[in-house]
Design goal:
With 394 residues, the chain is of the alpha/beta class. It contains 14 helices and 13 strands. The protein is globular, with a radius of gyration of 23 Å.
């Protein structure tokens, strides 16, 4: 009788474990009907002009996805933590999401330094992340659990320099840059230096605090350096600050934005100071005729009626698209490893005009290889494309 009882307990235990395995309850962040996804993004700090619309794009795409039934019968539960663009708060948010909430994966809408500080932690926890930063340190060499949706800052800088020399036909240009005073900005400056040094091009660099409201000294220094091309990299705020103060003193080099100094908010806030402003951007603008943009606008109208979105919203939308595609390819037995492998199988992913085609592999986690150049159109407070999509990778 005792043996029969022990056997019965053994069989029941196996049955319960079997059910648990089938529905993925033993996988962090995955249950039979839910997938937990973390989002770390500044909502109350110095770069909200970029991070808030980007976060809204992420949230609304996943909301729409859930309304269509989710993926393999599972709905996405998005858990958002505000890190105020602060490395200590990013670490605290990460620990909370992983150890208390038990997320499967995380979308990181925060700075390069913040994401870099997490590197040993997400590797140890085997936590796949979709990074907003695409500095080379993030994706080169390839980190198994890190993905982006655009080319590296370094490659984009090379494309900007190439545009100045070939498209604008600059002769003996003197370059300056005004970037965020953080790791993202220093990454851009280093990339410019590495690109122009072999070409013998003079180069001057300036840095602007993420919370700055004045860039007079940086403008004056750039003018003293006789820079006739100024690259603005970092955020909308970086560009707005510099453009306004340059306009006040009549300093009129050709301004070219990169990284996140490329949203429509620059034109709206800087006004006439943005006249002639050019930027590169791997993502399509709100109002673009592309099928993917029109579909995004149609869906968003149901959540944010009558509200025009900046290009940063598109960035968030595309991040969620890639995450969702990876989850889909990860299959019903989803876990962190199958999610990574799912994203790595994406080849020539067609966003229908939201970006150029996106391709991943075990040796390439940055996805995007294309950008295009835009010019400020003051009348409609937007940018208009002045080039087709062009490959920015080496």
């Amino acid at each position: 009788m005792r043996k029969e009882k022990v056997f019965t307990i053994f069989v029941v235990t196996l049955f319960v474990l079997g059910i648990t395995h089938v529905y993925g309850e033993d996988v962090r962040g995955v249950s039979k009907d839910t997938i937990k996804v973390g989002l770390i993004a500044d909502m109350t700090g110095p770069v909200t002009a970029v991070t808030v619309p980007m976060s809204n794009g992420i949230k609304n795409y996943l909301r729409y996805l859930n309304e269509q039934g989710g993926i393999h019968g599972r709905k996405i539960r998005l858990i958002h933590e505000d890190d105020r663009y602060s490395v200590p708060l990013t670490l605290a948010a990460f620990k909370k999401l992983v150890f208390r909430d038990g997320i499967l994966t995380c979308i990181m809408v925060t700075g390069t330094a913040n994401i870099s500080a997490l590197m040993p932690h997400y590797e140890k926890q085997k936590l796949p992340i979709i990074s907003v930063s695409s500095a080379e340190i993030i994706v080169k060499p390839v980190k198994r659990y890190v993905f982006t949706v655009q080319d590296t800052y370094q490659n984009r800088v090379k494309t900007v320099i190439d545009y100045i020399l070939k498209d604008l036909k600059a002769k003996n240009p003197v370059l300056a840059c005004a970037n965020l005073d953080n790791e993202s900005g220093r990454t851009i400056s280093r990339a410019i230096q590495e690109t122009v040094k072999p070409l013998g091009i003079k180069f001057h660099e300036e840095y602007i605090s993420p919370a700055a409201i004045d860039a007079t000294s940086q403008v004056m220094n750039s003018r003293r350096a006789k820079a006739n091309y100024v690259i603005l990299g970092g955020s909308d705020g970086t560009a707005i600050c510099f453009l306004r103060d340059a306009y006040k003193i009549g300093y009129k080099p050709q301004f070219i934005g990169t990284l996140f100094s490329n949203s429509e908010a620059i034109i709206e806030i800087a006004g006439r100071a943005a006249d002639g402003y050019i930027c590169d951007n791997p993502f399509a603008l709100w109002g673009d005729a592309a099928k993917g943009v029109q579909e995004m606008m149609r869906i968003t109208e149901g959540y944010l009626p009558g509200k025009r979105q900046t290009v940063d919203y598109t960035v968030g939308w595309v991040k969620s698209m890639i995450l969702a595609e990876g989850i889909k390819r990860g299959g019903e037995g989803l876990n962190s490893e199958s999610l990574v492998e799912g994203i790595e199988t994406i080849r020539g992913f067609d966003t229908e005009g939201l970006t150029g085609p996106l391709t991943y592999g075990s040796d390439d986690h940055k996805g995007g290889n294309y950008t295009r150049f835009l010019k400020a159109y003051l009348k409609n407070k937007t940018f208009i494309p002045i080039t087709e999509w062009r490959r920015s990778s080496d």
